[in-house]
Amino acid sequence: MLVCHCTTCKEYCQFDFFSENKVEKMTEISREIREVKDKVVVITGGTSGIGLSIAKHMLKNGAKYVALFELDHENSRIVFDELHKQYHDRIGFYPCDVTKTDLIYNNFDKVMESHKTIDILINNAGIADDNKPELSVDINLKALVVASYKFIARIGKHKGGKGGVIVNIASTAGIVSGVLPVYCATKHGVVGFTRTLQMSYGLTGVRVLAICPSFTNTPIVKLTLNDDLKFLEPVLRFMSDVYFQSPDSVAKAVIDAIKSSDGDASVWAVKRDEPAFPVAEKEDYHDYI
Fold it and tell me: DSSP E strands: which ranges in the chain?
């Protein structure tokens, strides 16, 4: 039996999500979770590209502490050392391969132990490599799901916590057809996961957002294809002519989305260094059930 959690079907809900004494309306976003100042933030993949820009913007906006879950290699350590010189104990480095669930869990526990809470989770780690479909799914989607559920289990109101914010870095390839099929599929998964998980805001107190950047100047856009995928090369050629926005524009979109009071806007797009805008869910799924 299909169970629907949306407000239009609340009379059929078997999970009691809509009991008046339990639930805040989705359009009433708590002011407490619309702030960055004095918050504890976790960012996956935070030492390059969009993740690094988000880390800097969080710190500039007054975040109390930013934890970077990142692969432990020389370049990431160099970047972290530079950040640490400027922000000192407001930033921490946590070696983490996000495909390893136990490492995600252990790092969450370390941050919780030292700072007593985590307020904002930024699921940013990602790759654009259709040569490695299994790894693409593991990093772009599976790790994001694992981290999100761990975060909710630790700070959700239904677990006695105070709630918080999850921001998933998706892509405009998660809204429309993209260039790389596997990458596009994973980002569609992120958008669907975000919209569905946000439906539980009233129960968990965890706001769930997705930021969908268009082409952005980051290391992951440097694409190569193996022999099996050469048929995709004509599709890639147009990328030489598109506008690549700055990672700072995406970071600003993250901050703006968190601070927005629009409870209906869970998915935001940002393109061409312009202000982010909410993406409406155009399809009514009642047409399909």
Answer: 40-44, 65-70, 91-95, 120-123, 164-169, 206-213, 267-270, 277-278
As to burial, measured by CB atoms within 10 angstroms (0-12 exposed, 13-18 middle, 19+ buried), residue 215 is: middle
User: Can you tell me the distance from the alpha carbon of 89 to that of 1, in angstroms, rounded to the nearest whole number?
Assistant: 51
Q: What angle do CA 16, 168, 259 make, to 5 degrees?
A: 80
pLDDT digits (tens, 9 = 90+) for 153-163: 999 999 999 99
3-state helix, strand, coil in the chain (%, to 5): 50, 15, 35
Looking up tokens 């921490």 gives 92
| CB within 8 Å of 100: residues ≥ 6 apart | none
Residue % of the chain over a pLDDT of 90: 69
CB 23 within 8 A of CB 202: yes
Residues involved in catalysis: 183
pLDDT for the residue 28: 56
Segments making up each domain of the chain, as ranges:
30-274
What is the CATH T-level fold of the domain 30-274, as seen in this structure?
A: Rossmann fold (3.40.50)
Tokens standing for residue 38:
């004095």
